[in-house]
Amino acid sequence: MFPLALNPIAFSIGALSVHWYGLILGFGALAGLYLAIREGKRFGIPQEFFMDMLLLGVPSAIIGARIYFVAFKWGEYRNNLLDVFKIWNGGIAIYGALIGAIICGIIYFRYKGYSFWRIADICAPSLLAGQMIGRWGNFVNQEAYGGPVQETFLRNNLHLPDFIVNQMYIEANQAYHHPTFLYESVWSLVGIVLLMVLRRQRFMRAGELFLSYFIWYSVGRFFIEGLRTDSLAFKGGSGLASFINGLWSPMKGLGFEQGYLDPNYGNIRISQLLSLLIIVAAVLLIIIRRTTGAAKDHYSDPIVSSKTHAADPVVMEQPDTPEQNVSVPPSDPNHPTLEEDKKE
């Protein structure tokens, strides 16, 4: 007799059901906001800037994440269009969320007069914090898990507590599974510490912390994605598939096996391929920005908003002598000069 899975509904208000998935994602967003506000204070950026950014960025990220996921699962949604909007049941892709958030950030930062790269650097640990916490929503929904494992592996090898082990038993499959949500959550936590150390280093240039986030997350995602059984995939060349599998092969030396991927669905996991492309692109961007001088600013340099300074009120000098205290400009023909005042 196996224990029942956690109820994905946290509580209900009348006919409205509040899901753990949404609450956890919301908590992750607030944790990321806190980190951004705290770091922003060092540069004199008001907290309202980050709060407005969150109000705009979260919906943009959710929309981007859902569009990304549905696009690759269109066959399952085209006859059930209402299901497209049921995000509380899961089915959002982090890379899609990043695309939506970046597009929103480019527009919002430019509107506020800030450099995209400087603000993106501040937000890099926040992104990892949101992902670290958000993965627990997958845990509650029993999704984004890996291939089957023995219960002893979870208890004796990973030393996981009962509530995680029990939730990793998928009744439909009659088996325990790799807690890939946990692997990614821990990887993100280590990444937060790494980024916080890097941002205090003098050699870090503008944009490099943000790009380091992409490198770190993508490395972890590449190896963790190979364990999953629900990967978005497509049918590609056998050479490319062999190349990706070869890069993943060190995991086998650690005792891990790839999660099953239906060959009729695809042979290349989209997130693995995208992770490799992002790593290469991020490294190239760091090199190009350094060699061309585009990354001349350091992370620790002041951050200035062009819009804020343009809107600053001009402080007029106070007159030093009574004669200078003239309220009407001398160019006014109807105003008598000082000499005329004396004659009168």
UniProtKB/TrEMBL annotation:
Q: Which GO terms describe its molecular function?
A: phosphatidylglycerol-prolipoprotein diacylglyceryl transferase activity
Provide the residue span(s) of the region labelled Disordered: 308-344
Relate the protein's function as given in its record.
Catalyzes the transfer of the diacylglyceryl group from phosphatidylglycerol to the sulfhydryl group of the N-terminal cysteine of a prolipoprotein, the first step in the formation of mature lipoproteins.
List, in alphabetical order, the GO biological process terms annotated in this UniProt record.
Answer: lipoprotein biosynthetic process
Keyword Transmembrane helix part of the UniProt annotation = yes
What name appears for this protein in its UniProt entry?
Phosphatidylglycerol--prolipoprotein diacylglyceryl transferase
Record's GO cellular component, any one?
plasma membrane
Supply the source organism for this entry: Paenibacillus durus
Pfam families for this protein:
LGT
Look up the EC number in the record and give it: 2.5.1.145
Its main localization is membrane
**PANTHER family noted in UniProt:** PHOSPHATIDYLGLYCEROL--PROLIPOPROTEIN DIACYLGLYCERYL TRANSFERASE, PROLIPOPROTEIN DIACYLGLYCERYL TRANSFERASE
Any idea which UniProt keywords this protein has? Answer: Cell membrane, Membrane, Transferase, Transmembrane, Transmembrane helix
Transmembrane regions listed in the UniProt entry:
20-37, 49-72, 92-109, 206-224, 270-288
How is the protein disposed in the membrane?
A: Multi-pass membrane protein
Q: Which InterPro entries match?
A: Lgt
The record's subcellular location field reads: Cell membrane
Q: Which family does it belong to?
A: Belongs to the Lgt family.
The UniProt annotation places a 1,2-diacyl-sn-glycero-3-phospho-(1'-sn-glycerol) binding at 135
- EC class (word): transferase
Named in its record, the pathway it takes part in is: Protein modification; lipoprotein biosynthesis (diacylglyceryl transfer)
